[in-house]
Write a structure and sequence with these properties.
The complex is a heterodimer of chains A (449) and B (388).
Chain A lengths: L11 H11 L4 H28 L3 H5 L1 H5 L8 H22 L4 H16 L5 E15 L2 E15 L5 H5 L10 H22 L7 H20 L11 H27 L4 H16 L2 H10 L5 H8 L3 H27 L2 H9 L4 H31 L11 H11 L1 H4 L3 H30 L6
Antiparallel strand pairs in A: 1-2
Helix pairs in contact in A: 5-8, 5-9, 6-8, 9-10, 10-11, 10-14, 10-17, 11-14, 12-14, 14-16, 15-16, 16-19, 17-19
Chain B lengths: L1 H9 L1 H31 L29 H34 L4 H15 L3 H12 L11 E2 L3 E4 L2 E4 L1 E4 L6 H27 L5 H19 L4 E4 L2 E4 L5 E4 L2 E4 H28 L2 H9 L4 H31 L11 H12 L2 H30 L3
Antiparallel strand pairs in B: 1-2, 2-3, 3-8, 4-5, 6-7
The chains are: A mainly alpha (449), B alpha+beta (388).
Amino acid sequence: MTTVTATSQSTLAERVAWAKANLFNSRGNSVLTVVSLGTAALLIFLAVRYVLFQANWGLVAINRRLFFIGSYPPDETLRIWIAIFLVVGLISITYGIWSGRLRPYLMVIGVIAAIVLTLGLGTDVRIEAREFTDVIQAGEQTTTVSGINNVLVMEQGWAPSWLYAISLGLAVPFGSTWLLMAAVFATLAAGAWVGQRIAPWRSNPIMLQGLGALWVLLIPTIVLLQIGVSSNSWESAFLDVLVFVVGGFFSFFIGLALALGRISPYASIRVASVGYIEVVRAAPLLVWLLFATFLQDELGPIGESFSSIDLVYRVMIVFAFFGGAYIAEVIRGGLQSVPRGQWEASQSLGLSSMQMYALIVLPQAIRAVIPAIIGRFIALWKDTALLAAISLVNTLEKSKKILSGQTDIAEGAFFEVYIVVGLIYWAVSYMLSRLGGAAEARLGVGQRR
Amino acid sequence: MKEYLLDVWNHSNSRARVVNIVVGVAAALIALYLVYSIFSNLFDFRFITGPYGSPDRSSIFSALEVEASDPRWLGMLKGAGNTISVVVFAIALSSFLGLAVGVARLANNPILTRLGKVYVETFRNLPLLLIMFFFAFGVFRALPQIQSRTGIDGFFYVSNRGLAIPWLEPTHSMWWIWPLVLVAAAVVAVAVRRRKDRQEEETGQSMRGNTWAAGIFLGAAVVSFLALLLPLRLTLPDVAQSESGFFTYAGGNQLGLGYISALVSLTLYFSAFIAEIVRGSIQAVPHGQVEAASSLGFTVYQRFTLIVLPQALRIMIPALNNEYQNANKDSTLAHVIAYGEIVLISNRIVNNAGNLLQTYLFIFLVFIITNLIISTIMNTINRNVQLK
């Protein structure tokens, strides 16, 4: 690309010069510009027209709760809110400590908060049973059919319907959920601010280790908060997150152990690790999940006791052990990237092998592969969609149930439902991939040639 | 005694022996336990001769449609065939699409680059199963009914039952000789081209290797097609109405919703990953190569096909190998949308006969073998493109 640049302060002449240099500098490029501009314009036009004017977001609005927590007992939702506040608080503080730029972050939070908190004020969505009578004429005979139809009734609040449509039906009306959501956004903003205040001490080992400990403790806390709630009522996005968080957490440590096992000085451990990794990676995750679902007494007493565990926990175990095999390969790459001299130096300093790995080798090895590990976590997050294939009600399965269970109001509205479900999966993966990109840029991993 | 044990532990040789023995015995016990429990069930292989039970018509090849009377082992083999018949096309289509998107992301045109980025970021961050659900339970269900004859009349139809496309139909039972002749002709053509290329390198005269190869292949194809008395003929689809008033497709080939949804979703999903691999590999080619090619007067097209792409291929192929194996494994998701691939067939057998370990061992073997085939092909290509 040529050096002519255009910024928001550019004059019209500069912009025209930029366009001439980059978009219309040859005949072929001009054709490309016109074609791709046309495609982009068409796509944007169709998307905007659909989202603002054609879609029936009332269907999403009335099922909002089902998308996120499904049939979780309403009296117990406080447990989920506490978990959300812990996660959000820790994420925002960590972000504030490591990112110097608060303004774009606050702007994104502000825009999302404005959409979610203001557009839904005053809207009321409900299903009303309406009587109907139809006169059917077949030949000579006329039959009168009457019955009750469920109709989705939506009363708009202050915002006109097209403005409300921007939120895809996710904007909340005033109530306890509204207040809690407002508090979540406030925490996101305040946490980042606090993080930036304490950023000067980020190299202080006490703070670093404290933050690390909080992160490690977070996952058991989220799980412990669920004690007393039957695992049958874990559903939808909450189930996906739970399986992802628990599976991902343990898969890291299993992967670490396997990676170290692969380079162990003892041949037997090496062979066992390689064998495990290769066997697990040979079959698709779905096959392992189905196997864990179907297994009864085929593998003797071990299989029997495994099959007596709750399906959700079995799935978490499969996720942890499956993800571990992949993360082991990633960490192995990191271990190979640590220069030989580092190992030799730590040995010649008389460090025990425990000290060598904990203090010298692993910090460098894991640092080098953080983006790749995040890549594995993204894959694991997307794999939680597979729970739909084994009769667990995750977000995807819930969307199917909404579409097939509410045919009177959801007839033909699959687009709205899949857009929102897709957005839930997409948003988490995209945030994780941005995190991976940031880590890559910060650690300079991708820069070395 | 205690000192002796410490001595054993502190001496690296004896410690290695101890650890090896302990771990080895533990691993052997676990393996033995698995083998024992597998074999206590596994010896019973009688179930595979029983009838499969229910027909499955989701295959695109009539030979791979599972009949109710088929023995279970044949059903499983046909399921494996159905897996392969979606994976092969998905890999081919996603490679082309991925190459196009990957190159578009590096184009000199900022709008095209953005479009490519939006495409990649959309499909890379969505779960494959969601894309499959979207097409299978959404888009294709919402298509018009079969009676409306949507499509190109007499040639191609699209409806909520799937796609109907023109297809080749065997005219006699010996038709399969023709594809074999084609493979043989291709082998000969490649050998001739290689020889011509070598002569060209030695003598410096143009030997027209490509023309020769194409001529041999096409000539053999046409001659054998005529010699075998036209083994295949083209059939065009049509919408027909049965006596009881039901509409069906007649002629051509019908691609069911399961197959089409699986193919489209796998293609879109993996093309996004392949696009990223292509982009990364092209960017990894040193910029000096591009500049050198430009200063030698190569056109943009020549620069790309003769200088950049061959070097990018070297970097690309190991990553593509990985992605193709992922596509192969992820094709199992298609069983959720009722495409009769290996897992769907096996699950039905498990439901009917209950032989979980045997059927899943078969799935396992299918994926080990297919992944081995993919990686063998890719490694062969890799050896050919590497610098020697």
